[in-house]
Design brief:
InterPro entries: dCTP_deaminase, dUTPase-like_sf, dUTPase_trimeric
Number of strands: 14
Number of domains: 1
Number of helices: 2
Bound molecules: deoxyuridine-5'-triphosphate
Structural class: mainly beta
Largest sheet: 7 strands, antiparallel
Protein name: Deoxyuridine 5'-triphosphate nucleotidohydrolase
GO molecular function, one term: dCTP deaminase activity
CATH superfamily: Deoxyuridine triphosphatase (dUTPase)
Shape: globular
CATH topology: Deoxyuridine 5'-Triphosphate Nucleotidohydrolase, Chain A
CATH architecture: Distorted Sandwich
Order of helices and strands: HEEEEEEEEEHEEEEE
Keywords: Hydrolase, Nucleotide metabolism
Helix content: under 10%
Organism: Natrialba magadii (strain ATCC 43099 / DSM 3394 / CCM 3739 / CIP 104546 / IAM 13178 / JCM 8861 / NBRC 102185 / NCIMB 2190 / MS3)
Length: 160
């Protein structure tokens, strides 16, 4: 069973009322990164390729808190700290307005026990403007059986 947006909101910090949806909580955009170097996925272990934070628009006539993203693939970091409670699994979907603008967020499984500010693959198939802190995704929780909880290398990522 999928949980209500109000339940999800109890595990997402901070959460404004405007982010709480019937079936989940909207996540907002913090930073956009561009990968510079190849990564590596091994039989044991992995390496994330070097990346650089994409600059926010500097030109005077444009809003300084807006990303102007040309067609390409980026890594987007969310603002919210997410804690996946035991007995649950998380899934992130793109906000439909993002998808309707020819952009997509590709995401992986959010494990029970994970806590952090995670990331998603932002695919831009047509140039787009996205304001920093705009809502770009929605997190939903489903009830799930598991034996262990997440204890991998991304535990506690991007939080002070
Ligand atoms: O789109 C997603 C999906 C998951 N996560 C977070 C939550 C998840 O629990 C954690 C680790 O994901 P996964 O287990 O898929 O990563 P891995 O590559 O297998 O790393 P590890 O070996 O540390 O488990 O990353 C994200 O930030 N973005």
């Amino acid at each position: 069973m999928f949980r209500s947006g109000a339940f999800v909101a109890d595990h997402v910090t901070p959460t404004a009322d405007s982010q709480v949806q019937p079936n989940g909580v909207d996540l907002t955009l913090d930073l956009v990164f561009e990968q510079l170097e190849p990564g590596r996925i091994g039989r044991d272990g992995k390496q994330i390729g070097d990346r650089v934070a994409r600059p926010l628009e500097q030109l005077e006539q444009r809003d300084p808190d807006t990303y102007y993203l040309p067609k390409g693939a980026y890594v987007a970091r969310y603002n919210e700290r997410i804690a996946i409670p035991e007995g649950h699994i998380g899934f992130v979907y793109p906000r439909s307005s993002l998808m309707r603008n020819s952009c997509m967020l590709n995401t992986a499984v959010w494990d029970a026990g994970y806590e952090g500010r995670g990331e998603g693959l932002l695919q831009v198939h047509h140039d787009v403007e996205i304001e920093r802190d705009a809502r770009i995704a929605q997190l939903v929780f489903a009830e799930a059986n598991h034996e262990d909880v997440y204890d991998g290398s991304y535990q506690g990522e991007n939080i002070e």
